Amino acid sequence: MISIKSSREIGLMRETATLARNTLVYIESFIKPGISTEELNQICHDYILEHGAYPSPLNYNGFPKSVCTSLNEVICHGIPSKSDIVKDGDILNIDVTTYLNKFHGDTNKTFLVGNVSDEIQKLVDVTYQCMRAGINTVKPGSHIGDIGAIIQEIAHDHGYSVVEEYCGHGIGREFHEEPQVVHVGKKGTGAECKPGMTFTIEPMINLGSRHCKLLRDGWTVITKDKKPSAQFEHTILVTEEGHEILTLRPDEQVDFKI
Ligand code: MF3
Ligand code: CO
Ligand code: CO
Known about the structure:
CATH class: Alpha Beta
Number of helices: 4
Shape: globular
Oligomer: single chain
Number of strands: 15
Structural class: alpha+beta
Strand content: 15-25%
Bound molecules: 2-amino-4-trifluoromethylsulfanyl-butyric acid, cobalt (II) ion
Largest sheet: 4 strands, antiparallel
CATH superfamily: Creatinase/methionine aminopeptidase superfamily
Distance between the termini: 33 Å
């Protein structure tokens, strides 16, 4: 069952989503060569607690840290560590989920560290375009499958692949709710969007093949070919008019068209 949020619940969702978004804005200036992903985790953790919220990943199914930090060939769910030091030319995704007002807000961004090669910068740009194009399909009467269809089309046009094992998800009182938002698919398939639904769109796009491998820590997912992978994520609300991006940052265009 896909939950429909009331206007009161939407107000509470808006606050948690804004805090998750603000955490991503806050962490940006700390991402420099030489900092460890553990230090970045601690800064996000403190910021979230100072704002009266809880970092949803911490202890979620045993996840040991407060944010996910996924470097280069890490697709998602990277565990912050003292021994992972960010260096020039890296790409680093930080995935923030906050629990405030009994609701979750979930957003992530792939940051460029120093001078990133043109090839990898283009992967990051196209991944962002994939996410925004997926978001742009959302309105009452559209289908969840429309999101994956356009993401897949754009990624494949550039010769990239789309990860299929991990998806977007409904979000609200639970971190992961129905529906599953797969980032590949066919237009017109899947659940129909209705006002009051809230879900994430979070495509993971690989430079090489789509195949992944789970490391022995039980969390970290990497590309099988060790080529880089990028991701962006927003929490979306279906509105009567179309949609609203609840985690949109000030540095992003409100109306992004590709
Ligand atoms: N924030 C991730 C998502 O977008 C989920 C992380 S689960 C964790 O769905 F346990 F790894 F934190
Ligand atoms: Co998510
Ligand atoms: Co997330």
